[in-house]
Amino acid sequence: MTATSVSLVLGSGGARGLVHIGVIDWLVEHGYKIESVSGASMGALVGGIYAAGKLDAYKKWVLTLSKSDVIKMLDLSFGLGGLIKGDKIINKLQNLVGTQQIEKLPISFTAVATNIETGKEVWFTEGSLFDAIRASIAVPLVFTPVTKGKRILLDGGILNPVPIAPTMSDSTDITIAVNVNGEAEDDHVIEKISATLEEQDEGEQNWFTNMVQDLQERLNLDLFERNEQWGFYEIMSRSIEIMQNSIAKMKMAAYSPDILIEFSSDTARTYEFYRAKELIQLGYDKAEKELRKHPHLK
User: Fold this and answer.
1) What is the pTM of this model?
2) Which of 35, 95, 130, 227 is deepest in the core (most CB within 10 A)?
3) Which residues are part of the catalytic machinery?
4) Are 22 and 30 in contact (CB under 8 A)?
5) Which residues fall within 8 angstroms of residue 129, CB to CB, at 6 or more apart?
């Protein structure tokens, strides 16, 4: 039987995007042929690395990350565009993957970013892979924007969190979209995924928020007044997640995938890359659950 060819669409969502690795692992292991990948933000990062044939190297590295490793990757910016420059992250990825041109990748790939001046999507289908990824992951206020010519580019998830449109002209058998900004499915799943957090004390749970707030004070960035439960980072992050889920629903109403694999926005916080093992496994298990509903696709 001929392998089912797939256009794979990977959504934005910070560390939750690590589930994309598990989804890809399941598809490859079960004989699906991924011929096209479109991604926004973390979806562009994982999808681009997979299209370059280097996902195993990235997976091996991210599985080693601890909380302190995540902090060390944050190269602070003292400009007004964002808190983090992102150079350390991109340099590490380039060391793992090598210099790559999108048009020369063995798998068709599109990274989606947002032109902040025109309010329009920018689709990267050629040029430097990591220039495209860096633009696509430029989360507002977190990563500094990317300037390409006269364009100022930010996170592709602002306008298109699950970018199906770039795959519409593909001649593949099916389109599979992965959305990691979905609504909570049931309390059991969230409780299971959050078990490690419940074991930590409040101070440890808020380590990232405290770091960002300390940085705000040093840079005199009084953006939000902290209350007892929600800090600046949580408010900003959660607001973006809510908006992206709403936008994703509208986009998918216009461009419906054949199969949607969806994860709750509560699955992980955007910076919890040190939870790679469980998030990758969650992606694999969810792909198993959703794709087994379609036994004719093999």
Assistant:
1) 0.83
2) 130
3) 41, 155
4) no
5) 48, 52, 97, 100, 101, 102, 105, 109, 111
